[in-house]
Amino acid sequence: MSYNLLKGKKGIVFGALDSNSIAWKTAQRCYAEGAQLVLTNAPVALRMGEINKLAEECGNAPVIGADVTSNEDLTNLINQSREHLGGNLDFVLHSVGMSLNVRKNKAYTDLNYDFQHKSFDISAMSLHRLCQCLYQADAMNEWGSIVALTYIAAQRVFPDYNEMADAKALLESVARSFGYHYGVKKHVRINTISQSPTRTTAGSGVKGFDGFINYAEKMSPLGNASADDCAAYTVSLFSDLTRMVTMQNLFHDGGFSFTGVTAEVIAQMEK
Which of 80, 101, 212, 226 has its CA 20 to 30 A from that of 202? Predict the structure, then answer.
């Protein structure tokens, strides 16, 4: 069901890799709610070609490649997006993350620090770089909204989440700090959504993911939130209904984050 929550709004969605990704679902939902979109991802991801299907679904939205570690690429993306959309932006989704140490099976106690710096740059400082480019170009409309996706490993230990836990903690800090400055300047709000473990291409690369997603399901009173659920929640943060919400890390996890233990988990442990 559509509510026209984003009618007349314009925005950029980062990170739609394939139909399993939260960014993909969010782009679909934004378009269904009346928004005009620009889609972007890293040039290497665009070569997979999947995003072109999404672009067609979203009113033939333009697809513009951008390396999130490059100020030049981000500035070009912002300029081209404003030209195509005919004005400033109302919302941006940052759905970006990558860990070279995870990819290379490097344990947290044996990190390659060159890999780690790259992971932080892509997964966390890219949000600062994006916000700074938007801020300096005055590219967001008054009361605009920027949302980044994160995970509870930023606050609690999940051993196999590796260095991405540190990257997400940095990401959330950037959202708070830049949220202050952008709020003062132009009432632009910046929030992070801490989503349930979700069967995306990126999430499935974490060691022991299947076991953990089952555990989270048992630990969440409402069950795990799906990618579609997260897309709907993201749309609410892009809408005018949440104009006074900023600098928050918002848990969207079926209650997992505030549950100590459940009867289902106890029963499983007693077997």
Answer: 80
